[in-house]
Structures are given as C-alpha cells and as structure tokens.
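Weekly modeling sync, notes
Attendees: S.R. (lead), two postdocs, one rotation student

Agenda item 3: backlog of single-chain predictions. S.R. asked that every request posted to the team notebook include the full sequence so nobody has to chase files. The rotation student volunteered to paste the first one in as an example of the format we agreed on. Action items at the bottom.

Example entry:
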Amino acid sequence: MTHLFTGLGNRIKNMKNKRLVGFLASVYGTFRNKRPCWVSHDSNAWITRQDGWRIADPHICLQTQDELFSQVEDSYLLHYRVKPGNVILDIGAGLGYEAMYFSRMTGETGKVFSIEASPHTFWYLDLNIHLNKITNVNICNCAIADKKRALYAEDSEAHVANRVSGTEATRDNVNGISLDEFVSENNISIINFLKMNIEGFERYAIDGMSASIKIVQEACICCHDFLADAYKDESMRTKELVAHFLKENNFRVLTRDADPRPDIRDTLYAYRL
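Predicted structure, as returned to the notebook:
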C-alpha cells in the first residue's frame, strides 16, 4: 500500500492543472498522514496546511511537522538539545524548515538568526516565516564568507545544492559578510548553537569567524567531501580543514562514520570542552 501511495503521489505532482493537483494532493496527504491536509498553489509556491502550520515549498511537501522536525534532529542535533531562550545561528537556512524547528524549540525568549544566500531559496524562507507568523526568527539574504565582499549565489530550484562563488556565471549577486561582522552588527553576545550548511563555502566562512567562534557553545557544520569525490572538485573537500579549526578553538569534534548517508558522514558535531 505504501508503494501504491508513493507512485500515486509522484503522478499527482507531475500533472499540469494546479487546482486539480492541489485537490488530489490534499486527498492523498489526508490519507497518507491520517489527518486533514490542504494543498494549494499561490504565486510560485505550493502551500501545504496541516498540523496547525503552513509549509511553502517549490514542490508539494506532504510530510508532517513531526517528520520534518525529526529530520532536523537527525541531521543536525547529535548531542545538542535546543532549550527555551537559546540563541541559534542557522547558516544555510534553505526553505526554513530548520528555522521553524528552532523557533518552536527556543520559544518566545529565544532568538534565531537564519541566513540564506540564494535569493530564490530565501524567498521561500521569508514566506514560511511570515505564513506561520514567526516572530523570534531574524532572516538575512546574505552569504557568510571570510570578509565583506561581492559574491554570486546559484539560484536553481534544487535549493539544497545551491552554492556561493566568487566567480560570476549564471548566478545572482549576493552580499558576503564574515560571521564576526554579522555577530557584531547584530549585537550577539552568545551563540548556544551554530548550524552551518553552505555547500563547500565553509572553507571561507571559518576564516571570518576567529572572534565569533569564541562565543559558540555547540556547533554542527556540514562538510562536503563526498561532493569533492563525486564531482572531482577539491574546493569542496573541507572536513579535515574545518575539524582542525574547531579543535584549535577548544571543541571536541564527533562524526558518524558508520552512517550509510555520505552527507551525514561528512557532518561535524562539536561541543566546547
């Protein structure tokens, strides 16, 4: 039955009539999740309403809030647990699923800074924050880099793979800023948790956080050696470099080397000694 619903869901997504697609996806999502689910298309986004919240995505997302939040915990929170009142930096925020999780867990007394370089992806991040009336998340369309400078961000629909570069190609302009500068400009005095997933640009980001790393308590930095191997691009090989940086700044670094997922094997989980 699961495979039948999966195949049906894929066929629904490929249909052209968006109103009909929304209706069929709503029916499918209601059966899948065993709870009411409404899907509609507005501007450039598919909006899914369920569990008392809304999800804006370039594609139809029928996952429940519990499923999405579980993915956040599995990917980024090996040993850290978000607490009410925490200050979190979410660098490489994507569509905003992590921001919504961090917002819920930090509560009214917490603060989340979500940073996304790709203008296309940032549009969805902004929409998700506003649709859900989230007030404890500050969003910024910029790139965390080694210093303030002009950069270029890929702007494809494959938002998880969008990269930042110093070379102009089929990319959009984006302002680069070091984490030290961002922290200073936003008067951030402590970072309880730093999450960074910026598709290889972490090699430059660490050169601009020599001061701000001192106020970080715990961190999760996604490295991308597996992409260096896949695409023969050594600029993506960052795991050893970032691990050395963290250890030099008095962090213990943990990895999940036995995990079958290559992106998880290249993720560094760190806490201050």
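Discussion: group reviewed the output briefly. The chain has two domains: 2-63, 66-272.
Action items: rotation student to repeat for the remaining queue; S.R. to check formatting next week.
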